[in-house]
Amino acid sequence: MTADTSQATATAQPNIALVKYWGKRDATLNLPAAGSLSITLAGLHTRTHVHFDPALDADDVALNGARDTAQTRKVSAFLDLFRARARVDTRARVTSSNDFPTGAGLASSASGFAALAVAADRALRLGLGARNLSRLARRGSGSAARSIFGGFVEMSAGTRADGEDAFATPLLAADAWPLTVVVAITARGAKSISSRAGMEASQRASPFYRAWLATVPEDLASARAAVQARDFEQLARVSEASCLAMHAVMLATRPALLYWNPATVACIDCIRGLQRDGIGVFFTIDAGPQVKAVCLPGASSRVAAALRGVGGVQDLVTSTLGAGARVVPDTAA
Ligand code: DP6
What's the rounded Cα separation, in Å, for the pair 55 and 52? Predict the structure, then answer.
């Protein structure tokens, strides 16, 4: 292999879980304790360029223009998985940027590791295929396994100790049910407790954790059926219930994990008002204060107008559903 031409660029979009992932059955292989179901967004992108360069002594990682030791260590360990498969030890230069706020509850780790997996696979000419890339993306971040695919996606927890059955599969293409997501940004900047640390704390110290885990298979079945039948009412019911149950687990964690701010609650209240008026919308919230309003086609402008008027909402991002991670023309990110 001529390692000095080993470069590629990939792009990936964040996804939003409708049935939530919170907790692991194995931390080393990053195996989720339960399955999850998500939608991949179209309007927000991570773009990542990877160049395996024999002239380098160490991996050189720049995320949004910044070099950070902890991130570099994570990315290096992730690239080691690809180097092992390619039987090379060439170090890489990685440049990655997001066109949306990093670490603010918009799942930048999902699109980040999905883009990195696809770029590394192409740069090393591994040709691993989407299912293997989903398994590998999972090692970087559980939610990243889902961003390998577009549209509606289900992640399997699997039962095998080696994690080979823990990967995502596409359920329905983005254009088969063109929902729109309006993200209400209620705070800027990175969250105080990462999803990884938060879920570890809940698993260890939330009396509700086990009870919540037992509800996931039924929620997954209900959400999967709702997607297959394009039944918005049913998807709304199960998604809001899954989200609120996860936040109940978080709140019961000792010490408590409270990711919401007053504007988060005001957005929930606003969406409930829209629902009473017959508007096709429901909310979901991850490990942060932003509120994601999932809308039927045609409802998003009314929803955006209502959320814009909620006190404490700083900005809105509207996105349709989009494609999975993919290679793009090879220019530096
Ligand atoms: C609340 O995928 O970021 O967004 O696997 O530890 O990297 P790690 O966690 P991560 O957790 C996402 C948690 C969530 C719910 C979800 O996306 O399913």
Answer: 9
| pLDDT tens across the length of the chain (333 residues) | 444 479 999 999 999 999 999 999 999 999 999 999 999 999 899 999 999 999 999 999 999 999 999 999 999 999 999 999 999 999 999 999 998 766 556 777 999 999 999 999 999 999 999 999 999 999 999 999 999 999 999 999 999 999 999 999 999 999 999 999 999 999 987 667 999 999 999 999 999 999 999 999 999 999 999 999 999 999 999 999 999 999 999 999 999 999 999 999 999 999 999 999 999 999 999 999 999 999 999 999 999 999 999 999 999 999 999 999 999 997 544
**Is pTM, for the whole model, over 0.70?**
yes
The residue whose CA has the least distance to atom 11 of ligand 1 is 195
Residue 10 in contact with residue 328, Cβ under 8 Å? yes
* Separation of alpha carbons 232 and 178, rounded Å: 12
Expressed in angstroms and rounded, the spacing between residue 141 Cα and the centre of ligand 1 is 7
CA–centroid distance for 63 within its chain: 17
From 41, 143, 152, 153, the mutation candidate for ligand 1 (largest count of ligand atoms within 8 A of CB) is: 143
Domains and CATH numbers, the chain: 7-173+322-328 (3.30.230.10), 180-320 (3.30.70.890)
Q: Ligand 1: which of 18, 21, 191, 246 to mutate, judged by most atoms within 8 Å of the beta carbon?
A: 21
